[in-house]
Prior knowledge:
Strand content: under 5%
Number of domains: 2
Number of strands: 0
Oligomer: single chain
Distance between the termini: 18 Å
Mean pLDDT: 81
Structural class: mainly alpha
Shape: globular
Number of helices: 9
Radius of gyration: 20 Å
Largest sheet: none
Amino acid sequence: MKKKQQPNRTxxxxxxxxxxxxxxxxxxxxxGNVVYLYYQPNITINALIFCTLQYVVILVILTLPIVxxxxxxxQIPLMITVMCALFGFVAMVMGDGLxxxxxxxxxxxxxxxxxxxxxxxxxxxxxTIIFEKQDQLVLSNKLFLSLYVLIFGLxxxxxxxxxxxxxxxxxxxxxxxxxATTTASITTAEDIPLCGHDALRDTMTDLxxxxxxxxxxxxxxxxxxxxxxxxxxxxxxxxx
Length: 240
């Protein structure tokens, strides 16, 4: 029994180190970036608010598992916690804060595909928590679980696009990349917007990538159903 627990303990320790490193890097980079932008002559107050809000959101994502565990006794798997924290870091800190969206035009597309995979595991965790005591009624149908993963990923992707639209409307940003002259989230007065059908390209590309990623994870759940359910029952036995 000890031999089986040792590898898991080592993995958990490594995941915790990654989690703490992301926390420290977010605070350090976020503080430095906001201060740097504050002293830029061409930065608008809306853009500054947007950047500050990004770091606040990622800090909430990082601290949420701790709050849920201590206040509501909800235990989020460490792997999911780290995956969500890592996605938030590369999307908000690296993507917006360090302008990876502007430097690498493919950065946004890769993240949308990655996010759909992460959300698949989040969705599975949510449904196993909801139906923990009635798993024979819901979790016994692998076709339902596969369809659920697909719909969950697509729904989250649609909500994300709505949030990006709201950012751009209220903060004057370019998170939906509707500018012809830049793919960065923060724009200047010299940037020129796209027109007509081209202005929809980024939004539709993101939704298509969400569909592809969710569909792949749905297929994965369908063919790895037995292993996933076995892991679910093991988790319940460990709680008891």
